[in-house]
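During the reporting period the student researcher (J.K.) took over the structure-prediction task from the postdoctoral fellow and processed the backlog of single-chain submissions. One of the processed entries is reproduced below for the supervisory committee.
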Amino acid sequence: MLPWLSLALLLALLDQLTKVLILGAFEHGHTTAVTSYFNLVRVHNSGAAFSFLAGASGWQRWFFTAIGVAATVFIVYLLRAHPGQKLFCFALACILGGAVGNVIDRLLHGYVVDFLDFHWGGWHFPAFNLADSAITLGAICIILDELLRVRRTK
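J.K. obtained the following C-alpha coordinates:
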Protein backbone atom coordinates (compact mmCIF):
# COMPACT_ATOMS: atom_id res chain seq x y z
CA MET A 1 0.00 0.00 0.00
CA LEU A 2 2.92 2.36 0.65
CA PRO A 3 3.76 2.99 -3.05
CA TRP A 4 0.13 3.89 -3.80
CA LEU A 5 -0.21 6.17 -0.79
CA SER A 6 3.12 7.78 -1.75
CA LEU A 7 1.83 8.42 -5.27
CA ALA A 8 -1.38 9.94 -3.87
CA LEU A 9 0.66 12.16 -1.54
CA LEU A 10 2.94 13.26 -4.40
CA LEU A 11 -0.08 14.16 -6.56
CA ALA A 12 -1.70 16.11 -3.72
CA LEU A 13 1.56 17.98 -3.03
CA LEU A 14 2.07 18.83 -6.73
CA ASP A 15 -1.52 20.01 -6.91
CA GLN A 16 -1.06 22.25 -3.87
CA LEU A 17 2.28 23.58 -5.15
CA THR A 18 0.74 24.64 -8.47
CA LYS A 19 -2.16 26.28 -6.66
CA VAL A 20 0.18 28.21 -4.36
CA LEU A 21 2.03 29.45 -7.45
CA ILE A 22 -1.22 30.55 -9.10
CA LEU A 23 -2.50 32.22 -5.93
CA GLY A 24 0.79 34.12 -5.61
CA ALA A 25 1.05 35.19 -9.25
CA PHE A 26 -2.55 35.89 -10.28
CA GLU A 27 -5.41 37.98 -8.99
CA HIS A 28 -8.83 36.32 -8.99
CA GLY A 29 -10.11 36.28 -12.57
CA HIS A 30 -6.76 37.21 -14.13
CA THR A 31 -5.92 35.40 -17.38
CA THR A 32 -2.64 34.94 -19.23
CA ALA A 33 -2.65 33.47 -22.74
CA VAL A 34 -0.07 30.72 -23.16
CA THR A 35 -1.07 29.45 -26.61
CA SER A 36 -3.94 30.10 -29.01
CA TYR A 37 -5.96 27.41 -27.22
CA PHE A 38 -4.67 27.47 -23.63
CA ASN A 39 -4.67 30.10 -20.86
CA LEU A 40 -3.60 30.18 -17.27
CA VAL A 41 -6.39 31.72 -15.23
CA ARG A 42 -7.22 32.04 -11.55
CA VAL A 43 -10.75 30.87 -10.88
CA HIS A 44 -12.40 30.00 -7.56
CA ASN A 45 -14.86 27.10 -7.74
CA SER A 46 -17.06 26.75 -4.66
CA GLY A 47 -18.97 23.92 -6.32
CA ALA A 48 -17.95 20.57 -7.73
CA ALA A 49 -17.18 19.47 -11.29
CA PHE A 50 -18.28 22.06 -13.87
CA SER A 51 -19.18 24.37 -10.93
CA PHE A 52 -22.06 22.11 -9.86
CA LEU A 53 -23.79 23.77 -6.87
CA ALA A 54 -21.36 26.71 -6.96
CA GLY A 55 -24.25 29.11 -6.45
CA ALA A 56 -25.49 27.41 -3.28
CA SER A 57 -25.40 29.30 0.01
CA GLY A 58 -22.19 27.77 1.42
CA TRP A 59 -23.33 24.38 2.68
CA GLN A 60 -21.76 22.77 -0.41
CA ARG A 61 -18.27 23.44 0.99
CA TRP A 62 -18.85 21.03 3.85
CA PHE A 63 -20.89 18.61 1.72
CA PHE A 64 -18.09 18.22 -0.86
CA THR A 65 -15.47 18.09 1.89
CA ALA A 66 -17.40 15.24 3.56
CA ILE A 67 -17.65 13.40 0.23
CA GLY A 68 -13.88 13.81 -0.22
CA VAL A 69 -13.15 12.47 3.25
CA ALA A 70 -15.54 9.53 2.75
CA ALA A 71 -13.93 8.80 -0.63
CA THR A 72 -10.50 8.85 1.01
CA VAL A 73 -11.52 6.27 3.61
CA PHE A 74 -13.16 4.06 0.97
CA ILE A 75 -10.17 4.28 -1.37
CA VAL A 76 -7.73 3.34 1.40
CA TYR A 77 -9.96 0.33 2.15
CA LEU A 78 -9.94 -0.66 -1.54
CA LEU A 79 -6.16 -0.29 -1.74
CA ARG A 80 -5.80 -2.67 1.20
CA ALA A 81 -8.31 -5.11 -0.27
CA HIS A 82 -6.77 -5.30 -3.77
CA PRO A 83 -2.99 -4.98 -3.40
CA GLY A 84 -2.18 -7.18 -6.42
CA GLN A 85 -4.22 -5.21 -8.94
CA LYS A 86 -1.65 -2.67 -10.11
CA LEU A 87 -3.70 -0.71 -12.64
CA PHE A 88 -6.66 -0.56 -10.26
CA CYS A 89 -4.45 0.62 -7.40
CA PHE A 90 -2.75 3.20 -9.66
CA ALA A 91 -6.21 4.52 -10.58
CA LEU A 92 -7.27 4.68 -6.94
CA ALA A 93 -4.06 6.47 -5.96
CA CYS A 94 -4.67 9.10 -8.65
CA ILE A 95 -8.24 9.64 -7.48
CA LEU A 96 -7.10 9.75 -3.86
CA GLY A 97 -4.38 12.33 -4.56
CA GLY A 98 -6.81 14.51 -6.50
CA ALA A 99 -9.53 14.23 -3.90
CA VAL A 100 -7.15 15.15 -1.09
CA GLY A 101 -5.81 18.12 -3.10
CA ASN A 102 -9.30 19.52 -3.61
CA VAL A 103 -10.36 18.84 0.00
CA ILE A 104 -7.32 20.80 1.21
CA ASP A 105 -8.50 23.74 -0.94
CA ARG A 106 -12.02 23.58 0.46
CA LEU A 107 -10.71 23.53 4.03
CA LEU A 108 -8.15 26.32 3.51
CA HIS A 109 -10.05 28.64 1.18
CA GLY A 110 -13.69 27.56 1.04
CA TYR A 111 -13.32 26.93 -2.69
CA VAL A 112 -11.13 24.99 -5.13
CA VAL A 113 -8.50 26.91 -7.08
CA ASP A 114 -8.74 26.16 -10.81
CA PHE A 115 -6.24 27.52 -13.32
CA LEU A 116 -6.07 25.45 -16.53
CA ASP A 117 -8.25 26.98 -19.24
CA PHE A 118 -8.50 25.27 -22.63
CA HIS A 119 -10.53 26.96 -25.35
CA TRP A 120 -11.27 26.80 -29.04
CA GLY A 121 -13.11 29.24 -31.26
CA GLY A 122 -14.56 31.25 -28.39
CA TRP A 123 -15.70 28.15 -26.44
CA HIS A 124 -13.96 27.55 -23.10
CA PHE A 125 -13.85 24.19 -21.35
CA PRO A 126 -14.48 24.79 -17.63
CA ALA A 127 -11.22 25.63 -15.87
CA PHE A 128 -9.68 22.82 -13.86
CA ASN A 129 -6.51 21.95 -11.91
CA LEU A 130 -4.00 19.12 -11.43
CA ALA A 131 -6.20 17.42 -8.83
CA ASP A 132 -9.05 17.28 -11.34
CA SER A 133 -6.63 15.88 -13.93
CA ALA A 134 -5.48 13.15 -11.53
CA ILE A 135 -9.09 12.23 -10.73
CA THR A 136 -9.91 12.05 -14.46
CA LEU A 137 -6.83 9.91 -15.17
CA GLY A 138 -7.84 7.62 -12.30
CA ALA A 139 -11.39 7.27 -13.63
CA ILE A 140 -10.08 6.42 -17.11
CA CYS A 141 -7.74 3.81 -15.62
CA ILE A 142 -10.58 2.24 -13.62
CA ILE A 143 -12.62 1.88 -16.81
CA LEU A 144 -9.60 0.43 -18.62
CA ASP A 145 -8.92 -1.96 -15.74
CA GLU A 146 -12.51 -3.19 -15.83
CA LEU A 147 -12.45 -3.64 -19.62
CA LEU A 148 -9.23 -5.63 -19.36
CA ARG A 149 -10.64 -7.71 -16.50
CA VAL A 150 -13.76 -8.57 -18.48
CA ARG A 151 -11.65 -9.43 -21.52
CA ARG A 152 -9.45 -11.79 -19.43
CA THR A 153 -12.48 -13.68 -18.13
CA LYS A 154 -13.75 -14.49 -21.64
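The committee noted the following: The radius of gyration is 17 Å.
J.K. will present the remaining backlog at the next meeting.
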